[in-house]
Amino acid sequence: MAIRVPRRQLFIGGQWREPLRRQTLPVVNPATEDIIGYIPAATSEDVELAVEAARKALTRNQGKDWSKASGAVRARYLRAIAAKVTERKSELANLEAIDCGKPLDEAAWDMDDVAGCFEYYADLAQGLDSKQKAPLSLPLDTFKGYVLKEPIGVVGLITPWNYPLLMAVWKVAPALAAGCTAILKPSELASVTCLELADICREVGLPPGVLNILTGLGTEAGAPLASHPHVDKIVFTGSTATGSNIMTSAAKLVKPVSLELGGKSPIIVFDDVEIDKAVEWTMFGCFWTNGQICSATSRLLVHEKIADEFLDKLVKWTKNIKISDPFEEGCRLGPVVSKGQYERVVKFVSNARKEGATVLCGGARPGHLKKGYFVEPAIISNVTTSMEIWRDEVFGPVLCVKTFSTEDEAIQLANDSQYGLAGAVLSNDLERCDRVSKAFEAGIVWVNCSQPCFCQAPWGGTKRSGFGRELGEWGLENYLSVKQVTQYISNEPWGWYKPPSKL
């Protein structure tokens, strides 16, 4: 099946605009290593134009066109976008799969979630109207007060390549619902569907400048956006190192940031589980999306009583995963996103072996695939807590394993990490699951599963996995500023100062 990648330009002020330096970047199909198209490469000059367009959109007609419009007005646009995404689901899923390498079934699921996210935030936007002027309970009856929630302003949204459109929409939908205007900068490794979102916004008549989309390199477009003095907030998903750089830039301007960063999340499997069921959730938690998930539960802690049986089944199930071109029927593992990512994953496995770990399966190119950035899912045992494979994020289909004997030991090993994004616990003892959930040092906990994500539930981490929350009502609050208004209602003078004598 031939899939044509549309040739798009930057989306600034509601129009397609060629980058001022007329530079482009190739779009590489990770399953074939072929160049299949080009995206525009924005630079700091284009960032200036996009920020200017966003600021104009924020204040146009004294804000009545967008930022000060009712939530119901903004909700109509979000619902129209959702409808277009649903209408173009097949096309968008095809483009997502060919651009980033995820299996087509996953990409189609993502598009359903994209539409659902816009619908959800449309409802929250509409609900904002009734929450304005929420009264405050004050201790003095001579005063009354209320709270206003207002858009924070122009926001810069910098997003990753593992869920190119969905992760972008996790930011775009609540930002627009709140009344912000935005500049979206997707990863240069997978930007195609984000440019199609621009086309959808143009189709539904989104006011010009409300959403601007700049593709390009992080150093050339992302960094100027993060440090721009007229961008009021930066929201970023990506590596901890880049997040730290963004914080540094923002600190100079006392600019707020929200960061969803790396992870090395644990999954604890107790000895009372139904083993086949637990094996599948363990695989899904680490190998879904070709293993390229910030929240991947890539550190398996399995009770020593069932470890041998569990690992034997886990290896057999893992070897049975269909690794293929994302468009082949039944594909459950496609290529990683790029040559650089392929080399990174393979090096992690090689280093683990050199440090003394045992590679039970995977970690190399599948024999039947001569081209493409494919890596067989790897399971690594005999791991110590000082090893690189246990401590650092791989961002690929690599699962490392340790055993434990007690609940306390499992919790200690789970929390012994610089990261704190997620954790999973598998056990038929729900009281134990509750104890472990409370003990996890993480922002997300799964019980008897791994990786389910719903736009109604908050998403974010602790420690070096970042701060702030996306999704749910918390995602909307990310883009709102709270203003208190207090009124003196007594007819009597305040009486603090003595009045001057009457002449």
From TrEMBL:
Catalytic residue list: 260
Boundaries of every Aldehyde dehydrogenase domain copy: 17-485
Stored InterPro entries: Ald_DH/histidinol_DH, Ald_DH_C, Ald_DH_CS_CYS, Ald_DH_CS_GLU, Ald_DH_N, Aldehyde_DH_dom
Pfam families given in the database record: Aldedh
Gene Ontology terms for molecular function: aminobutyraldehyde dehydrogenase (NAD+) activity; betaine-aldehyde dehydrogenase (NAD+) activity
Pathway stated in the Swiss-Prot or TrEMBL entry: Amine and polyamine biosynthesis; betaine biosynthesis via choline pathway; betaine from betaine aldehyde: step 1/1
EC number: 1.2.1.19
Keyword annotations: NAD, Oxidoreductase, Sodium
Superkingdom assignment: Eukaryota
One of the protein's GO biological processes: glycine betaine biosynthetic process from choline
Catalytic reaction(s) noted: 4-aminobutanal + NAD(+) + H2O = 4-aminobutanoate + NADH + 2 H(+); betaine aldehyde + NAD(+) + H2O = glycine betaine + NADH + 2 H(+); 3-aminopropanal + NAD(+) + H2O = beta-alanine + NADH + 2 H(+)
Keyword Oxidoreductase: yes
Enzyme class, spelled out: oxidoreductase
Entry keyword annotation includes Methyltransferase: no
Family per similarity comment: Belongs to the aldehyde dehydrogenase family.
Name of this chain's protein: aminobutyraldehyde dehydrogenase
Biological classification of the source: Eukaryota, Viridiplantae, Streptophyta, Embryophyta, Tracheophyta
